[in-house]
Amino acid sequence: MTTGLLRRGLASRFSHNATCRRPSLAPASRQTPSPPLLPAPLQHHRNASTTTRRNRPKTALFFPGQGVQKVGMLTPWLEAFPTTAAPIIQEIDHILGYKLSSVIAHGPSKDLNLTPNAQPAIMATSILILRILEQEFGFQVDQRIDFTLGHSLGEFAALVSSGYIEFEDSLHMVQKRAEAMADATKKAEEEYGGEYGMVAVISEPPYMQQLISAIEEFVGYASEGGKSESSEDKSPIDQVLIANVNSKNQIVLSGNIERIKMLVAHVRQFLGHDPRAVRLKSDSPFHSPIMKPAVGAMQRILNGRSRVEGREGEDIVTWPGKVPCVSNVTARCFGSKEEVKDLLARQCLETVQWWGSIKYLDQEEKVRRWVGIGPGKVGRNLVGKEVGMRGKDTVKGGGVWAITDPSEIEEVLRGLEETEGLVEELEGEE
């Protein structure tokens, strides 16, 4: 379905009354004229009534991390939903203090790919898509979602979506986090020399745990918190860490590139296994001890007060949130306001336990529906591979979807609607 078609005829399922719509982030005077109605197949979705959690399969909402940015990624949303998108884009530029929207719209890619631009761009685009779902389709996270999570940077969008942090505060934190990460990398390069970055290592699932253990032994970190506690006596040139455990057959190494090459050679020699190594397009070694200065920057912000008008003087973190959110560091839900502040600050340094998070929700919490929101489909592919679904899967009682473009809204909303009652049917068969 093209964006043009998407704008021509939808009237109705998710906004049955005014309370379904969140207020715009910008004053009403900045609103642009209403767009044409969206297409007939989507008429059914704009006014969907809310569904109680006990009547449907458990559902998780997830958001992407760095690397999915693309020049022009806001344009389809602005064209399809100008009334909603335009004021949010203006608000994004206002919060950041410069026209990030121009960098996203026109590039060039080398500018958008810079960490201080890429991270705010991805997070802001993810929330813009969510706001469009809320305002145009009455999609209510606290009514339709049971858990939220985000991959690294995506955790900031997850915390916004589930009510722990306001969008303005979160986007400001992402901006300062990205600047601190870029500065930490520049300092390491200037002081120690060398080239820094990230490398994905792809293995066969049976070898993964052995591979992780061998790498942890080689680099000397083997427990949660190990990076922050054990890196004091190592120079950045010697620091290589597992940045992400993404799936049952993929991890990401972060640090000095030459040192990473040595580590991969060590694994191949002593494990008798030949994993595939792929350099990622990252200008910084995220989730490595080189990022330690960024932890301090995050701690200072999180211990401060909200920047949001009307909340000045209030704590930046709201507790409890509306929906449980899973931490990257522990692969479990945040348990307190203090834990949100601690783990969110440490998150840029510690390993992203993405695989553990998905396994926890899938196997222990019995989540059966997964909805990705934001640019790119990397997150959907990682989730789908782990839970064994892509799109709607009535046999397994749910599905895995992603909304990265307006043309995908229909499939996702229809898939959610068609799987609403599967929990009752499957329970009745047992």
Automatic annotation (TrEMBL):
Residues 43-56 have a biased composition (Basic residues). One of its GO terms (cellular component) is mitochondrion. It holds the Pfam family Acyl_transf_1. Residues 62-408 form the Malonyl-CoA:ACP transacylase (MAT) domain. One of its GO terms (molecular function) is hydrolase activity. It catalyses: holo-[ACP] + malonyl-CoA = malonyl-[ACP] + CoA. Its EC number is 2.3.1.39. Keywords: Acyltransferase, Hydrolase, Transferase. One of its GO terms (biological process) is fatty acid biosynthetic process. Residues 19-56 are annotated as: Disordered. It is an enzyme of class 2 (transferase). PANTHER family: MALONYL-COA-ACYL CARRIER PROTEIN TRANSACYLASE, MITOCHONDRIAL (PTHR42681). This is [acyl-carrier-protein] S-malonyltransferase. It comes from Triangularia verruculosa. The lineage of its organism: Eukaryota, Fungi, Dikarya, Ascomycota, Pezizomycotina.
